[in-house]
Specification:
CATH architecture of the largest domain: 3-Layer(aba) Sandwich
Largest sheet: 7 strands, mixed
Oligomer: single chain
Distance between the termini: 40 Å
CATH class of the largest domain: Alpha Beta
Number of domains: 2
Bound molecules: pyridoxal-5'-phosphate
Helix content: 25-40%
Number of helices: 13
Order of helices and strands: HHEEEHHEHEHHEHEHEEEEEHHEEHEEEH
Shape: globular
Amino acid sequence: MPFVSFVKALRAGQSVQFPLEAKSLEYARGLDAEDDLGHLRDQFLIPTRGSLKKKALNGTLLGKGPNGATTNQDQDDNTPSIYFVGNSLGAQPKAVRSYLEAHLETWASVGVNGHFTQYDNSPLVSWQDMAEDCATKSAAIVGASPGEIVIMNSLTANLHLMMASFYRPTEKRHKIILEWKPFPSDWYAIQSQITLHGFSPATSMVEVQPDPSPNNFYISTATILSTIDAHADSAALLLLPGIQYYTGQLFDMPLITRYAQDRGIVVGWDLAHAAGNVELALHDWNVDFAVWCTYKYLNAGPGAIAGAFVHERHGKVGRDGSGKAEFRPRLSGWYGADKSVRFNMEKEFQPTAGAGGFQLSNPSAVDLASLSAALGVFGMTSMARLRDKALVLTAYAEWLLDGVLAGDGNGGDGGPPFRIITPRSPLERGTQLSILFGEGLLERVSKRLVENGVVFDVRKPDVIRIAPVPMYCTFVDVWKFGDIFKEAMNSK
Ligand SMILES: Cc1ncc(COP(=O)(O)O)c(C=O)c1O
């Protein structure tokens, strides 16, 4: 029963020593046999080695032509790729197609009536209720009540909307604490918010730096806390990623949230790389707000509609003495208005209580249908089970990569040919491993990986990121990746 004992050790923060026979394909197959989430892979369309070579659409989902007929030599390889890029774009859940078809049939058949009617034999609720339905399906994924979640817009747009409400700088408190290498969109959003409020990014942006040692990317919790202390009187907002996109470092969200809030700082999290990847408890952690996209670990498709969390205490709607609604200031739109009055077309904004009151527009039913299908797969399991599997998959990938290093000796410059820059502690990372190559290696190794059907992501000049996502990746995938990687490292 190695799988269960590995989970136990990894959940306790220990690293796992795989036995020597773990180098064999048979061993990987054994781990897959023990994995009770293996059936979830059938819910997805994993690009094949053949379909990845498509130059033109041919009316089929993967490589083969209609009824399995050969399309052309190149596209005829139905071997699944090693799809290790769910940290960038999740694989397509099969259900997306039927949900979209249901939506299209509804729209074609009943037109505008689809807004308010739920049809038998449809996986969808009425268009009006779809965003709330997706919020309900997201609740267990992010650890919040459905009323604390709103499904709308895209990640950066939601970041701006949240900052409009939660970043209220004053002469005394105007700084935003962020990390040194945020995703550029977060940087631009923060910078522009500061400028819009009439402050200067030079004095209002505080970047938490990695601990100073050569080539270090790791940011310790102690460094984050001491940065908070250093700016405790002047920071208005702390905005960090739950998981850092470049290194895959998972931050201690509950501790950092508490520490900053105790010093009067509002706390928001960008969960682009954390939602659907690691267990979250946004409500219990008392997070003020959070935002995430749904196209990475949540598999809703490129640019799909995003999510935002607003803690219940910020979403309350009260009444003043004259019966006027009282609520947290925000940028408002008609879809944030309570359903009971939304269509009265009045000038007075009366928000829905909760995060739904931050909704702006009538959300896209196409987007919501896709997200609803993708979230349905999460409903077949739990984040705890996905995390269990992810811990072992990632540790196995790490162990195989370390094996390549041990067998490979030094790179040309005397240093190791590559380095895993993702934290070694299983509790400080999600599914992703980031690999930093020695000079000149990235191109050669990447080419070999691509030729051998590995789909991954490159951050030039010298990093690749791989993510063996537990929902549809297998231990055999990880083993094959290790084998191909070794061959790629040794190729000339
Ligand atoms: C951490 C992070 N923030 C922001 C974004 C931008 O997201 P969007 O284009 O959906 O606004 C991304 C996209 O990958 C991201 O990874």
